[in-house]
Fold this sequence. Notes:
Elements: E1 2-11, H1 15-26, E2 31-34, E3 50-52, E4 61-62, H2 63-75, E5 80-82, E6 86-91, E7 95-100, E8 103-114, E9 118-120, E10 129-130, E11 136-138, H3 139-147, E12 157-161, H4 165-176, E13 180-185, H5 195-203, E14 209-210, E15 213-219, E16 226-231, E17 237-241, E18 244-247, E19 251-253, E20 271-273, H6 284-303
Parallel strand pairs: 1-2, 1-8, 2-5, 8-20, 10-15, 11-18, 12-13, 12-18, 13-14
Antiparallel strand pairs: 3-4, 6-7, 7-8, 9-19, 15-16, 16-17
Helix pairs in contact: 1-2, 1-6, 4-5
Amino acid sequence: MKELTCDIFITGAGAAGMAAALSACHEGADVILAEHDDLPGGILNRCIHQGFGLGYFGEDLTGQEYAARFRDRLRSSDVRLFTGTTVLSVSDDRTALMTSADGLHQVHFSACILASGSTERNLSSIPVAGTRPAGVLTAGCLQGMMNLGGYTETGDHIVILGSGNVGQIMGRQLIRAGKTVIAMIEQEEHPGGLARNHRECIEAYHIPLRLHSTITEIHGTDHISAVTVKDLHSGKTEILKCDTLITALGLIPDRSPAAGLYRNGTFPGWLSLCGNCDTIYDIADSLTAQAEQTGKRVCRSLSRR
């Protein structure tokens, strides 16, 4: 096992991790940044749509372009970047265990920044009867399959459960690909996500939006054939035939690398959170600004010791 030492260890090289690492490095810290994917960027790498960078760069960029700019900055910095690397644990003795094709590494650090992003809620978070046949997947999963893997073999008649940003964006992308979005089902009285996405996706592409409704049952054995939609005001139900169900139920902060350190409602003082593992951000520019401040604050706290 190889031993490494640094001032600040950062888990996750999405927008938050890259921004925090660059900020801390600029302040003079020796930084190790670990990322489980081969390419830094996180969720941004899936995003081929624009809407990124207006606040930070003053330009309207795709998520992929936004990530590429930070990767360029990383390459010209002193941040020690480990890609294709999984962080197995972060421990009380201020060490982290990580593994990659190069083997097992133990990292000794003075402070740690968790930038592990978020995970998607799925159907297990709501009471839906029926089986779990093929043709049911999350919006983020589909986004990655289509935009990174070139997957195009989705169904032709699609229902989307939830109206968050990714759900709206994927609804638009599916319509552009020649698919039919039968309905977008939202339990609240108003759609989720940014007003910009509502305007540019739901309204511009005439996606049928059913508010104060939910799905109570999935039909089909080998492959989904329909869903039962319930109006939460009247209690009336309707069966919608479809061959694909996309869930867009929102994101949950992912703090799993340091789950064992959360005690009595708090993490130890040497561990900081930034980005979506701290709180879910709708706008990448705001997330980046918060992560930069976190990197700067953590570095300056070390220098005061």
